[in-house]
Amino acid sequence: MSRGPSSAVLPSSLGSRKLTPRSLSCLSDLDGGVALEPRPCRPPGCNRQLRVRFADALGLELAQVKVFNAGDDPSVPLHVLSRLAINSDLCCSSQDLEFTLQCLVPDFPPPVEAADFGERLQRQLVCLERVTCSDLGISGTVRVCNLAFEKQVAVRYTFSGWRSTHEAVARWRGPAGPEGKEDVFTFGFPVPPFLLELGSRVHFAVRYRVAGAEYWDNNDRRDYSLTCRNHALHMPRGECEESWIHFI
């Protein structure tokens, strides 16, 4: 090992290999391509090494350019157009506003509000409580009789009149009923865009597996269904756009 008048000491194990900084904060450790004794770039006791790589080092472009033709129609989501229309009406109108939206509406009242809900639950051991719809899809709650600790609840649904089916596994939310003899599960599944056309329908039923047996709630063999319909929404002039979005 030798030391020149203006050179730093190079460990013999490195040979002539050129060192690179561990991170951007270590750039000052390199001076004219000669490796100086490195300074710690991380807290003591941390063995994690930081690496910085740029897109061009991986053969990628640093920038992406998208060219739009003047004749191309922009693809704007329906909910964005609805909000733009509401903003325009709010600015130009001094009266309360009323809108008509296309959305999925349950074809049945909330089962949990029925007078015989408890009787149905004891008979079927599983009952749908209620269901709600939004832009994100369909969600709801299911109540089951607590027959054993290990249990599984799922919702089988179809967008094609049962020609094809899908399943969504429900998650346990908590106990319910007297002395915790019942459990509540929550479920949810997405809705494809084509179902937001008038007349489109979703069918589903609830399955409950426990203690090696299987039980169903299919609305007394009629299936639960939701249909896309026009839904009138009334909005007072004084309310803001955020209130409308929260309501939806």
Please provide a written account of the structure.
It is a single chain. A hairpin with a 2-residue loop joins strand 4 and strand 5 (137-145). It is extended, with a radius of gyration of 31 Å. The strands form 3 sheets. Strands 3, 6, 7, 10, 11 and 12 form a 6-stranded antiparallel beta sheet that branches. Helices cover 12% and strands 34% of the residues. It has a domain at 108-233: Carbohydrate binding type-21 domain (Immunoglobulin-like, Sandwich). By secondary structure, the chain is mainly beta. The longest helix is centred in the middle third of the chain and has 15 residues, at 78-92. The protein has helices at 78-92, 117-124, 241-247, and strands spanning 30-31, 34-35, 97-106, 126-134, 137-145, 151-158, 166-169, 171-176, 182-189, 201-210, 213-217, 224-235. It is built from 3 helices and 12 strands, in the order ββαβαβββββββββα. GO terms for molecular function: glycogen binding; phosphoprotein phosphatase activity; protein phosphatase 1 binding. Keywords: Carbohydrate metabolism, Glycogen metabolism, Phosphoprotein. This is CBM21 domain-containing protein. Pfam families: CBM_21. One of its GO terms (biological process) is glycogen metabolic process.
